[in-house]
Amino acid sequence: MSGTLADAKAAMAAEEGKLKKFLKAVKKFMAKEFLWVLFALILAAPMAFIFKYLLDELASGVTIEYICEMLGEIPLFMGCYMVSIAGIYFARATQGAIKTLVSKK
């Protein structure tokens, strides 16, 4: 009976080690994602200013009115900001997909 108990304790210790390893990987992933979100939020502001400037300078009044109509009550700058954040995340996702496909294990 004690042999079975020792086997069960060893199995539990092994499972506990797997759980600790998994939780450590999740913590690392969450920290990395938090830094990417912070990076995207900071980098998106100057990109939105540039995007809005280009819209004001190069787009016709009809185009800007159409964009503002689509945004509704949201200011044009905030729309540019959201597009910038989406663009940064799309580029990051694309880069990650390419890295995953290219890397050999």
UniProtKB/TrEMBL annotation:
Transmembrane segments: 34-54, 74-91
Keyword annotations: Membrane, Transmembrane, Transmembrane helix
Recorded superkingdom: Bacteria
Name of the protein described by the UniProt record: Uncharacterized protein
UniProt KW Transmembrane helix keyword: yes
